[in-house]
Amino acid sequence: MVDNVQAHLQSLAHPNHGLETLAIIYSLPYTLLMWGMIFSVLAFFTEFFQHSSVVPSVPVSVMALTVLVLVGWSWHTLRDSPECGHLSRSVLAAVQWVRDSLRWILASVMRLVPAPR
């Protein structure tokens, strides 16, 4: 069985590139799916924020910010070196970033809203 698999993979191997071309061919659908999802979300947000009022924009903005924070946190966690405790440091850094961002957003909104008289 193993000999058959090995012979099959050797027949698929390119003389100069080895199995790299096979890896590219198998990863291409996933890559195109990811790019398609990214551009679909960007197109949705572009159309939504251009043609909507403030009331529906607030919940969608909060949801988009939440998703962005979670994606950024997972990217930051995967980017870290595999040393002990990096997950807890990245969680604390993400929580601090979210807290600072929310304070900044609140301060920006408070400057825009006139004070009641």
Defining key terms:
single chain; 117 residues; mainly alpha; 0% strand; elongated
Task: Give the topology.
Blueprint: H1 2-12, H2 20-50, H3 54-79, H4 86-112
Helix pairs in contact: 3-4
What's the quick description here?
By secondary structure, the chain is mainly alpha-helical. The chain is built from four helices and no strands.
Question: Can you walk through the features of this model?
Answer:
This protein is an all-alpha fold and 117 residues long. Helix content is 81%, strand content 0%. The protein is built from four helices and no strands. The radius of gyration is 23 Å and the shape is elongated. The model has no long low-confidence stretch (mean pLDDT 79).
Mean pLDDT: 79
User: Termini, distance in Å?
Assistant: 83 Å
> Helix- and strand-based class?
mainly alpha
Share in helix: over 70%
Continuous helix count: 4
Number of strands: 0
Oligomer: single chain
**Largest sheet, described in full?**
none
What's the overall geometry?
A: elongated
Low-confidence stretches at least 5 residues in length (pLDDT < 50)? Answer: none
Per DSSP, what share of the residues sits in E-state strands of 2 or more residues?
A: under 5%
* Element pattern in H and E: HHHH
Radius of gyration, whole Å: 23 Å
